[in-house]
User: Which sequence fits this backbone?
């Protein structure tokens, strides 16, 4: 029921609140310096956010083995108003994690299976003729929900993908001259299989950019596989999923978003983010760099990660922790690096190593 995220740190302690990454370059005694200058450092409390994240991870942990960072990134996407793309091989719990996230939130949930014959109106809705009053009425499609799981997004044709992307970006839908607003929260979790190309329609870079994260998942470790088998060897239908409880509601999500917006980030870190993104645009290893939307996504997700870890201020490691998930779908390798067999994550690592971290 689980795999491992490719961006997951080597040591699980880094996933818990109040504990920095095991690979941090910032000494413990100097971490709090990043709160200096904050007008609200003594007043803003992020405990409701960190408590909710830990409780949701605990509930989902009843079913999913590992995947703490994946769950954390999904919640960050939800709390910051973004959308998330889950990418991985079949059978590693991409869909299950998305469904369990929905089970912990008191809101509507909709699942849409994308297929090659799926039309835009199949997801957005269409006009239906009413015989009683001899008029057409708009019948809303499954995209009118709070949490939407798009299974195998790359199996639907481009026009259906484009219709979804428009709703994701605008959080509204126009049909027959009438605009319909999406209810809050509106959060899309999409999955795709990276190895199958036949019968699929790859998302173009402009549409990939609409996702705040692309989370790459892989197979579980040997210990994780053993734990999965011991947990489910006598539960073929995953009845344990009924034990997952609701934790938060839309009003709490609004409150969390307001808290995250107020998390303090020093000007030096904003400049650091700008330098990282600027490097992607002037890097010989990359054919295409990141846009300003990527910069804003790094700020938002860095603030949300800080709040999830129990801090009301951002440290450099927060930016480094989210950098791969934010950037890996926004960059295109140069032909030379692609021929060498390099990955986009390797180039991101090199950029993070080369750009000087503020002290």
Assistant:
């Amino acid at each position: 029921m689980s795999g491992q995220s490719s961006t997951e740190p080597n040591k699980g302690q880094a996933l818990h609140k109040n504990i920095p990454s095991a690979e941090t370059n910032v000494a413990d005694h100097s971490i709090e310096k990043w709160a200096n200058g904050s007008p609200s450092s003594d007043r803003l409390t992020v405990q409701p956010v960190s408590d909710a994240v830990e409780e949701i991870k605990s509930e989902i942990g009843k079913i999913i083995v590992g995947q703490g960072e994946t769950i954390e990134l999904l919640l960050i996407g939800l709390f910051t108003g973004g959308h998330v793309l889950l990418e991985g091989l079949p059978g590693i719990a991409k869909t299950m994690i998305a469904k369990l996230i929905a089970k912990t939130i008191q809101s509507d949930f909709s699942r849409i299976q994308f297929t090659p014959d799926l039309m835009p109106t199949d997801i957005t809705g269409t006009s239906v003729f009413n015989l009683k009053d001899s008029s057409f009425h708009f019948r809303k499609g499954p995209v009118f929900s709070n949490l939407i799981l798009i299974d195998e997004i790359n199996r639907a044709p481009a026009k259906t993908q484009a219709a979804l992307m428009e709703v994701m970006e605008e959080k509204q839908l126009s049909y027959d001259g009438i605009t319909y607003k999406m209810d809050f929260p509106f959060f899309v979790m999409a999955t795709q299989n990276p190895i199958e190309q036949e019968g699929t329609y790859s998302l173009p870079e402009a549409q990939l950019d609409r996702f705040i994260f692309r989370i790459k998942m892989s197979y579980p470790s040997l210990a994780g596989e053993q734990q999965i088998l011991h947990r489910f060897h006598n539960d073929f239908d995953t009845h344990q999923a009924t034990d997952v409880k609701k934790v938060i509601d839309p009003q709490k999500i609004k409150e969390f978003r307001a808290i995250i917006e107020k998390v303090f980030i020093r000007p030096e870190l904003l400049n650091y983010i700008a330098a990282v993104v600027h490097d992607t645009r002037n890097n010989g290893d990359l054919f295409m760099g990141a846009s300003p939307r990527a910069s804003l996504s790094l700020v938002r997700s860095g603030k949300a990660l800080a709040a999830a870890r129990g801090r009301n201020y951002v440290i450099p490691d927060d930016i480094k922790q989210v950098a791969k998930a934010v950037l890996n779908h926004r960059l295109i390798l140069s032909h030379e690096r692609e021929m060498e067999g390099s990955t986009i994550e390797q180039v991101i690592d090199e950029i993070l190593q080369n750009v000087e971290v503020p002290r």
